Each structure stands twice: as structure tokens, then as C-alpha cells.
């Protein structure tokens, strides 16, 4: 009366569902890691030997901390915020934007690229070091934009 037969598609269907679940899990893990990497990149302190650009946040920058030791690389530009908020924009000419945000008081950003374009919303509220040399402060309330080229001896 009744025919009993095993469905050959049943096992394959389960295997495909399991494979799809594993693929979905892998995509979620990869996406989460990429998101955490992108969000955490602004807060990563710079390494002195790092050849790429990096921004570093420091609560205070005392002369002893900023003194150059032999063998340390001097950044092409270092910007130190001295007000409550310092809007800063730095980019590689014709290329990547390295920073476009407000720095808080005492926070600094250092970059090692060969050439940089810098825009400061108020040039009087930041200290700017070009190749280790302090740049003259801008006029209070005045927007300041300039280019910095890495010194060959640094």
C-alpha cells in the first residue's frame, strides 16, 4: 500500500542550509572586524618607527615629552591643540584626507608623509611644528592654510 522511499534531496538540502549559515556567520565576523578597525583607527597611538601617517592623542605635551631623542623620526607636521576645540584638516595633496575633525585641548596629530596640505580654522589656537620647527602662530580668528614638504635631512 504505502511506498517507503528515502528522499535523496533531504541530506543535500540540510548541507546547503548549513553551508549558507556558515557563510553568513563568516561575513558577519569579517564585517564586524572591519567596522571595529575603522572606528578604532583614530584612537591608535602612533609608533615612532611607523612609516605611515598616524594621529596620536595626548593629554598634555610637555617639553620633556616632545624633546627629540637621537634616532627618532621627526614628523613632517605636528599639530598641538591649545584651546578647547581646534578644527583641523590635513590631507596628502590630490589624495587621502588624513584628518578632518576637531582636536580637543592638549590633543596632537602627527604625520610623516612627504607633502601635506594643512587647513586650520583658527591658526592662533594651535601650535604647528613643520619638520620639528615651530611655525609662527596665525592671527586670532583667521583661517590659515599652507603646504608642508618633508625636509630631506629628517
Description of the structure:
- It contains two helices and eight strands; from the N terminus they run H-H-E-E-E-E-E-E-E-E.
- It has a four-stranded antiparallel β-sheet with strand order 4-1-6-7, with no helix packed on it. Strands 3-2-5-8 form a four-stranded antiparallel β-sheet, with no helix packed on it.
- About 16% of the residues have low confidence.
Count helical runs.
Answer: 2
The count of strands amounts to 8
The computed structural class is alpha+beta
Compute the separation of the termini in Å: 92 Å
Alpha-carbon Rg, integer: 26 Å
Oligomer: single chain
Q: Can you list the strand order of the major beta sheet?
A: 4-1-6-7
How much of the residues is beta strand, in percent? 25-35%
Proportion of residues in helical segments? 10-25%
Secondary-structure element sequence?
HHEEEEEEEE
Low-pLDDT stretches are: 42-66
How would a crystallographer describe the biggest sheet? 4 strands, antiparallel
- Name the shape in a single word: rod-shaped
What does the average pLDDT come to? Answer: 78
In short:
The chain has helices at 8-40, 63-66; strands spanning 77-81, 85-91, 97-104, 108-111, 115-120, 126-130, 133-134, 144-149. With 154 residues, it is an alpha+beta fold.
List key phrases describing it:
154 residues, alpha+beta, four-stranded antiparallel β-sheet
Write the layout of secondary structure elements.
Elements: H1 8-40, H2 63-66, E1 77-81, E2 85-91, E3 97-104, E4 108-111, E5 115-120, E6 126-130, E7 133-134, E8 144-149
Antiparallel strand pairs: 1-4, 1-6, 2-3, 2-5, 5-8, 6-7
